[in-house]
Fold these 2 entries.
Entry 1:
Amino acid sequence: MNKETVMCRGQRFRLYLSEEQIQQRIQELGAQITNDYEGKKPILIGVLNGAFMFLADLIRAIDLDSEIDFIKLSSYGDAKVSSGRVHELKSIDAQIEGRHVIVVEDIVDTGLSMEFMMQRMNEYKPASVEVAVLLHKYEATQVDLDLKYVAFPVPNLFVIGYGLDYGQLARNLSQIYVLDE
Ligand code: IMP
């Protein structure tokens, strides 16, 4: 159900990006990727847990033979701010040497997780690595990253829904909500 406000862990969040806005933008990104990777078979690597929903919609918007795999990185736990420490909880299973990799992430905040991801991916010697990210908190990013496919640049706000959690809750929402402070 698509509500204007939701409660999560006793806090109120208001609608920030509607299901329609999200889905329309993903169609655009999918078309762009389809065009950019014509004749290639990209592998989309989703960063668990948050990227599962974005990856599921994005891959359906890509009209190419494509594969998926997942990696799991340490997260914020129950906090609303980044701990600044990243480690790998689950590695990828696929062989990506010589492959065209698209890292799929829900949100880039400080950028430390993505910086870690790029270092990890490059160790496997892929043919190319690009990033598809749903939300980029551009004001909060502390490292230099080349984010090729950004669905929505956003200011430094705490958001939930569409895969993004607050203490593991709210991932099931079809829309993105912002903390109503
Ligand atoms: P970074 O390493 O600081 O860029 O953080 C990336 C990770 O932090 C994302 O994959 C999310 O899991 C989490 N994160 C960052 N901002 C938010 C937010 O506003 N809501 C929920 N999770 C967030």
Entry 2:
Amino acid sequence: MKTLQTKVAIIGSGPSGLLLGQLLHKQGIDNIIIERSSAQHVQDRIRAGILEQGFVELLQQAGCEQRLEQEGLVHHGIYISVEGKKTHVNLTKLTDGKVVTCYGQTEVTRDLMQARQASAQTSFYSAPVNQIHNSPQSKARVCFEMDGEPYQIECDFIAGCDGYHGVSRPSIPQDIRTEYERIYPFGWLGLLADTPPVCDELIYCKHSRGFALASQRSETRSRYYLQVANSEKVEEWSDERFWQELKLRLPAEEAAKLQTGPSIEKSIAPLRSFVCEPMQHNNLFLVGDAAHIVPPTGAKGLNLAASDVAALYQVLSAYYAGQPRQVVEQYSDVCLRRVWNAERFSWWMTSMLHHFGEEHEDKRSFVEKMADSELEFYLHSESGMKLIAEQYVGLPYEQIKSVESEVKPHAVQVNS
Ligand code: RFL
Ligand code: PHB
């Protein structure tokens, strides 16, 4: 077995792992990334598209902001459409100048991977981690296989950035972790196409046929989503069927100018809310989707991963700058406060905007009428709109607390 050594072993090369690796590298903290899939596979995954300001600032700190600043689309607002009637939520006005940036996760991943290559830090691809040793009595160890050969990495800390299906979370003993979960009775069917977006801002559409979202990746590339039942199969959705259904759910003005075209990608993602507490155990930290999942309605999944990275980067930097080990112990609590906030917002947006009515085919349910009324209440009140805007642009990151070294009393030398 080959043995390597590093300070931080990072499992997973999604946005969490890559961003953490780059920030630590900039701070002179050695790290190794181990990724199950090939680099190409990681780069080709089509996922999130909206970045909060906090994420953009982290990319700047990591030195990976050049392309984002040239190609990212700054959005000052979003539209919420209810049965075709649009309301504009002016994010900038309602939050004293904040914005979000539309820049695909695929592009973020590509920029971070390029920076990683240039950094000469070690990364292993097509190398699934199969075991984690994380006891307080011995050095932390990560074991994996590559090209049929076993490897182990000895390290101070392990960052579990390996997503919802990774090995990090299950390696925390069951009696230590508590998991909270909600599975929604629908998913999102997403379609990417090289057609100009119908609108220069995002439109979240509540509709009796089901939710729809009009998003984008650039001025020439659109990303659309449709709420579909969990039983639906992507093969049953031809491009023509998708475009027809989307037209029915968009406001009339956008439906009239919708330009259709062949899809570049089409897939169904189930919707889930999930949190694992605590987010750390001994020398292992869970980061991003490894610890929590939100339904995509609030555009929070990727942004939450970034705020975890910010917290872990801060505690590890403080530790390697000489603060006592205790400084890393605040990681989970700091993260979980922000995580639960985003979980609540994402659940709320999902509950307000989706159609839950399959059990009530001819009569709308009481719960749905409550959601209609609540959404209308928010959209017709300045303070309601402000609440939506503040959460959509993202709450500020919490700063970690310094831990003073224990001052040992001076020994008094007694001369005999
Ligand atoms: P990732 O991106 O899942 O990366 C985890 C990485 O770990 C690797 N891995 C392992 N590596 C080594 N050994 C093992 N044993 C391993 N097990 C797993 C995986 O191969 C993978 O490369 O997690 P990370 O970095 O925390 O990033 C989180 C974001 O990717 C995620 O929050 C968002 O993409 C969620 N999400 C969306 N968020 C939004 O805000 N808006 C969206 O529109 C949106 N769409 C999506 C999404 C997530 C999706 N998933 C997870 C299927 C659409 C989809 C389809
Ligand atoms: C996307 O563009 O993929 C996207 C944007 C906003 C969301 C979810 C997904 O809330």
